[in-house]
């Protein structure tokens, strides 16, 4: 039998974390060396009281209990090593290595057993879990309930912080099972005990978080909050920062204590302890120490007898005991003269204090943000009204805090403060207009200049003006809308049994003559001028003056080649994007130069439009006279052709009533002249206002019916 056994890659469980190392068993005892820290744990053989072999997550484990009540756990063994260990324990330690399996049923109802420094929760004879009582930091009781809180383990990524036990009531008189449970825990737990007298006591202080009135007892190593319902013991080592903040009404003061880890009550965590004091409340304080002890411990920071404002006394004592500086607001001063800004965070209203190295918001919930945590800040438009704005802070971890409903008057002061602290501002373009009204900077969170949007706005204004100018001369044409089928009018006429103007010939049948072709010709003439009116309305006169460009487009045309030369091979989309960035970065003075050019071009355009309107009216009257004269001449030619055709084809034509004699006999020359002049006659009719609604003349009906 070997005198020693060595095992590599064994894990020791300490406060919930697994530390790997090397385990050695010898005649003298058990030695474990931590691979990470080099720390050595030595258990004498004479101290061993029990050894347990059990299956765990990492294979199999060994639990050793000492006579003093300490428990040591080692995991990472293989199942085949049980026989070797069992024989070694029997030979050298005179102990039987017992095998015990954990209960894995998942039940939450069982029996609690206290053995030495260990609390074991068992179901039947099998343990479910064990808690070393030395890890318990606090034990609180309620109605049929006991809560155990544990010390935080900085080495573990995840730590168990709290366990609650429900203790059913019993019928035994004089014995409270809840108190008995708590006493068993406290007798072995590492709980902060209020031994000795307090240095000083502050009575009935108003506390905002946790809410209520508490007596604060100051002890050398911890702070004791005693209320009607809850008690809190706060070690000074958990205090991170102290803040003394004046209220906006200048009559009250906030004293804020930042804690890590926070104090807990059920599921609620309080990272900040906030006390509210009145400036008018004074106190005379006597420390429960003699003058020599006070001088030796606090080195002149405190004296045995002190008097002054209550908030000054509390902050002075805390500063001396915690040995941390008290943070007060810096040189920031808001619009109303206060050192804070009224705003809302989430659903509650509170006060935001800009400090020298961060922001703090009180009080519900309290928030402290350091400048080195901030990625950028943003001034955003208010969601409900334009008389307020939102101040957004995004941290480097991606957390966003939005402080809303800040008065518009606070914008300039807050912007100057943020700018002086050199924080990144998302909508930086506002720095030129800090004194402008909120409506002007509300839309400043746009990332890029939208050149297309600016151009569309300019063209929309010009179209609006043109529409107003032409509305006086448009008459009833503005009522024209979508007319389905007009695009196919020429095709439809070929199959229209009543249409005669475009498909007439000398061989037309008598059936068509009997269906009142004149009426149908009127319908066709009524529809076609409308088509021409719509086309003329939609068409663009090439002689009309061109619309003026916006300031941005004038600048872009003048600098397009320069941008191309600075960025060879740049695409059209990238060029537009780059131009937008350059335009956005341009100073206000340079933009004003192009604004003046755009205004000059606009005035020139308006002047040209007036001249164009006067010239177009005179030109249209002259064209109208010439077309009327031409039409009259064409009608005379048509009349002569009709007479000539009637004499040459009188024998072959079908008879018709005397009223329609001239309509029945037409020569081929007349038909060709009619077709050649049909397009011109349509165009003339479209330009004469109201022609479509008038009945056709006798000459028109004679020439257009067949």
From TrEMBL:
Comp. bias regions, Acidic residues: 474-496
Start-end of Basic and acidic residues biased regions: 532-544, 634-645
Record carries keyword Nucleus: yes
Compartment(s) where it occurs, according to its Swiss-Prot or TrEMBL record: Nucleus, Nucleolus; Nucleus; Chromosome
Keyword DNA damage: yes
Region Disordered: start-end pairs: 459-551, 608-706
UniProt-listed GO biological process terms: DNA repair; DNA replication; regulation of chromatin organization
Highest taxon, organism lineage: Eukaryota
DNA-binding region: 545-613
Pfam families the record matches: HMG_box, PH1_SSRP1-like, POB3_N, Rttp106-like_middle, SSrecog, SSRP1_C
Compositionally biased region (Basic residues): 517-531
UniProt GO molecular function: DNA binding; histone binding; nucleosome binding
Biased amino acid composition, Polar residues: 695-706
Gene3D superfamilies named among the record's database cross-references: 2.30.29.150, High mobility group box domain (1.10.30.10), Pleckstrin-homology domain (PH domain)/Phosphotyrosine-binding domain (PTB) (2.30.29.30), Structure-specific recognition protein (SSRP1) (2.30.29.220)
InterPro entries per record: HMG_box_dom, HMG_box_dom_sf, PH-like_dom_sf, RTT106/SPT16-like_middle_dom, RTT106/SSRP1_HistChap/FACT, SSRP1-like_PH1, SSRP1/POB3, SSRP1/POB3_N
Cellular component aspect of the GO annotation: FACT complex; nucleolus
Keywords: Chromosome, DNA damage, DNA repair, DNA replication, DNA-binding, Nucleus, Transcription, Transcription regulation
All copies of domain HMG box, residue ranges: 545-613
Residue ranges with Low complexity bias: 497-507, 647-659
Family membership noted in the UniProt record: Belongs to the SSRP1 family.
Function text: Component of the FACT complex, a general chromatin factor that acts to reorganize nucleosomes. The FACT complex is involved in multiple processes that require DNA as a template such as mRNA elongation, DNA replication and DNA repair. During transcription elongation the FACT complex acts as a histone chaperone that both destabilizes and restores nucleosomal structure.
Name of protein: FACT complex subunit SSRP1
Gene that produces this protein: Ssrp1
